């Protein structure tokens, strides 16, 4: 099963995340199928590749709860319905 989840990178206490599409059985920091965006919780900065995310969701990828919340804030689900 393909999941949309966060991949951690950065220094200690200066963490950032990449939003990636990965197989659900792969480890958190393993090689992703595709990188779909960026999330920085310290500054609440988010950059998303919306067409690629919509494509993955239509193919049946399941987002984690955190990624789902980020996508709701960015109104990605509105574009999925259209």
Automatic annotation (TrEMBL):
Concerning Pfam families, the annotation shows: Ribosomal_S16 (PF00886)
- Keyword Acetylation, does the record have it? no
According to its record, what are the GO cellular component terms? cytoplasm; small ribosomal subunit
GO BP, one annotated term = translation
Molecular functions per Gene Ontology: structural constituent of ribosome
Q: Which UniProt keywords apply?
A: Ribonucleoprotein, Ribosomal protein
| Gene3D superfamilies named in the record | 3.30.1320.10
Q: Which family does it belong to?
A: Belongs to the bacterial ribosomal protein bS16 family.
State the protein's name: Small ribosomal subunit protein bS16
């Amino acid at each position: 099963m393909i999941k949309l989840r966060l991949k951690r990178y950065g220094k200690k206490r200066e963490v950032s995340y990449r939003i990636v599409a990965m197989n659900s059985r792969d480890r958190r920091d393993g090689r992703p199928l595709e990188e779909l965006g960026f999330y920085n919780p310290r500054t609440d900065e988010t950059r998303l590749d919306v067409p690629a995310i919509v494509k993955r969701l239509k193919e049946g990828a399941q987002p984690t709860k955190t990624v789902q919340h980020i996508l709701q804030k960015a109104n990605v689900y509105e574009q999925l319905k259209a």
